[in-house]
Amino acid sequence: MFVTGLRGQDVTVEYKTSASAVLIAKDRILREQLLPGYDFNFTVLFDQCDEKLAVGATIRMIRDLNVDAIIGPTCSFPAISAGVISGFYNIPIFTWGLSTASTLSNVERFPTTIIMSVNSFSLGIAIRSLMLSFDWDQFAFIYSRVGDMETCDVTMTDVQSAMSQTQDVVISSINQMLDVSYDTVIRTLTNVSTRARIIVVCISEGGGYKRDFILAAKDGGFLNDEYFYIFADTMSRGFVVPSTRGEEWSLWKDIKAQNDGRDEEARLAFGQTMIISDHTGIGANVSAYQNFSQLVVSRMKEAPFNCVEECKGEEYSAAATYAGQLHDSFYAYARGLNASLKQNPNSYRNGSFIFSNMVMSFEGVSGDVRIGANGARMPSFYYDGLDSTGKPILYGAVFVDGTQANFTRLISNEAHFWWSRGGNRPRAVPICGFSGNQCPGDPLKAYLGFIIGSAVLVLLVIISFATCSYYVIRSKRKETERLNQMWRISFVALEAARGKKGEHSQRSFHSGTSSTSTRISVENKVETRNFIFYMYQKESVAAKKHEARVQLDPQDCLELRKGLAFIHGSMLQYHGYLTSECCLVDDRWQAKISDYGLRKIRAYDKRPPEDLLWTAPEVLRMECDGSREADIYSFGIICAQLVSRSSPWDINNRKEDATEILYLVKKGGHAHPRPPLNVNTDLEIEPALLHLIRDCWAERPSERPSVDVLKSNLKSMDPNRNGNLMDYVFNMLEQYASTLESEVEDRTKQLKEEQKKSDVLLYRMLPRQVAEKLKLGQSVEPETFDSVTVFFSDVVSFTKIAAKCTPLQVVNLLNDLYTIFDGIIDAHDVYKVETIGDGYLCVSGLPHRNGKQHINEICSMSLDFMDSLRNFKIPHLSHDGVNLRIGAHTGSVVAGVVGLTMPRYCLFGDTVNTASRMESNGKPGRIHLSFEAHLLLAEVGGFEVESRGEVIIKGKGVMETFWLLGRVGTVHRTSIEKIPLKETGAEEHQKTAPSSRPQSTEHTGIYEEFKRTE
């Protein structure tokens, strides 16, 4: 049921700009094979939003025309009457358009009614969600019936019902305006101002009534930082107003013949308001709906409507705003019927049974469609505002499910939304109350004495703290200076040693430039007279442990033992700070110990936990500041590093950090922790050395071996050593030479493997012979190929698929699809040129010429592409598949490498453009060939083609093209029988009846569709 020629509904639900939406829905139903083997007949009647006409039309459809389902009416009161009658006859009915009454969702009263439009009760839930998000607990509701006698009445009732569900938000005042004149608006706002500052307004979308209201509020002084207006409407697109001619204008524009010149004032006034709406069923994807709108207009001129002369006016140049809901109603019916027939093949006219299968969700033209158990659509509403330049701001969105709302804020900083109010959110109740007599007194006067006393007290505390801090810091500095004077020696107490002057070695350093001069300047003589430093150009033992290929020699440990023996036998008695970092290696690969002495000075140094990993447990417990036994413990830790070729305690691979390890060592106990002795696989270790290391780090100091015991044990591990230094040096040189040889061999193998990987990657990007020339530094000259076949493909409706996916899912989808295609290409003599988004460009016949076989290769590959899509499913959209549109053309091209940075092997010539035109002018699931490709394919043979006829190709004019059907012997043909049209008399109606019942030779309705028979 439709309305036509009815003023006020010509933009939203006009028959001449919406009826063809059912044909678009039918195409989708057939494409998705929801009802295979079923046909549809349509019957159209006009209720004109009149309750009496709707009742008569409903009874006539059910009893006389024997329809299986009803779509309509489009207004609330006619929809209520039609829903009751349909429930009596158990016929499914789908309401859409302006039928916003929430009473239609009462399942007991309407057991067969499915509501595709957005009801105003859900709008009330969205208003409540907005109030709660802004911490508003009350508001006023103003509405008018001017321009629409029905909608705002229903909205007022449903908003009251929504607010009565909870007590957190209340309506403090409800006022009806008989008109939208200045006097009426001011009188209404004056009454409201004593009860509310947040005002929800329901006024008809057209006629400029909202503009008149907001300008009147501004002129009357009711548009300031205290007042905030929310325009609530289920039939609005925010601040954009559509017209019957497909045009759109801003809400603040004056559309009347006599312009008042206040558009800029109106824009600034609307900047202090908000609009709550469902964007008139368009959803968030406006561009997709615009494409749908153009398709609706064009299909109205086709059969069965044939609305050519009557639809010529500008008012029919765009689809009705709710045409998308008509499309989704028919499509939802097909899905519900499909589910019902699977359970009961005879349930095609059982309205209550179909109703039970209508709980679903799908991507509709009017946005995401979710139908609940009560048959009502669960809508999404949007909160629109304006910025300072007049551009829309989408503050948030809310999804309504029954009485629950899921609010999502879409603006990061709420202060940006309140730009016209200095970034401050308005209050539901003013600070001084609605009458202005509840302002609190001046707090400064009331608490002046308390403030002064507190300030004085805080000031005294700050002064006292600063004074104490000064004296504490001063005393610490003096103590530090006193301690530093204790170890200093006065210059006058020093006596120069008289000795024979001699040449200094070049390996000795002193302050200044290194030279053979014995002269020392006066400035640095005092600082350097008694200091000499030896530089070790080799690494430390800590660095040597990383040379995994060098065999560990007990001599390394023996040399460290000699150093310890010297220190233990000297006046120093023990090292105290022995680590692998202070065990250096000289030019003769001999280990030396450094950093000993000056223990009292170094006792004040704060050492990080990492430097204490070699320290004995008793030292960590501060039982002593060092001992010979503690040095033996540190010696054991160093030997463990040499054995495992790792860091101390293998700390890089442990879950504990240095602090935790030190805590466990200090704690001790029966199971005291020690470093792991994981012997490196490249080393040959004497087992006795491992036992010796474990003895060195015994928990009790008395159980650790002395340096003399270490000497005897280490010598016993290498009895063949004669102590000759030169032999030792030569052995080390041979060992390093063999190690270096092995490392060079391994690195060479790794280099070759990496070269192979880079070559494989390069051959995937460029043809092999081109890549070889580029590797040799040669230039690649452009080459002409007289006959090649160029292939283009494109994923059908990729934009819609991408809209359902996240960016990562889009990448994964294309990767899975192109992986399949790349595998198919490998089986053919085809070169993949490039992919751009969902586009795929290939060519056969270059860079290797293959005679006339390039057309054969491209056609075979195209058919394999189509076959591979039969089983391909989108992972995250299991019910959706992927379809291709393929085009091919044969001709000459020029190929060459373009660019220096990231060079590309590109094709040039008109053949590439023509192949692209073949793809863009093709059809989903079809392979489109040019006339030249068809001629060459006819010579090669082996394929079946079908002439498409002459097609106008952009830039080419009229061309005869062909469809590639398949290989010879694999094509199955079907016959198509056309059923003639039959006139029904004075009224031409369409009957909608998907049915599997046998079709008689007599058909009713305005037209009959084509019927396919196998």
TrEMBL record:
**CDD domains attached to this UniProt entry:** CHD, PBP1_NPR_GC-like
Transmembrane stretches in the record are 447-473
Query: So what EC number does this one have?
Result: 4.6.1.2
What is its membrane topology? Single-pass type I membrane protein
Tell me, what is one Gene Ontology molecular-function annotation carried by this entry? protein kinase activity
Pfam families for the chain: ANF_receptor, Guanylate_cyc, HNOBA, PK_Tyr_Ser-Thr
Q: Which key words are in the record? A: Cell membrane, cGMP biosynthesis, Glycoprotein, GTP-binding, Lyase, Membrane, Nucleotide-binding, Receptor, Signal, Transmembrane, Transmembrane helix
Coarse class of the protein's main subcellular location: membrane
Under which main EC class is this enzyme filed?
lyase
Q: Which stretches does UniProt call biased (Polar residues)?
A: 992-1003
Catalytic reaction(s) noted? GTP = 3',5'-cyclic GMP + diphosphate
The record's family statement is: Belongs to the adenylyl cyclase class-4/guanylyl cyclase family.
Q: What is this protein called?
A: Guanylate cyclase
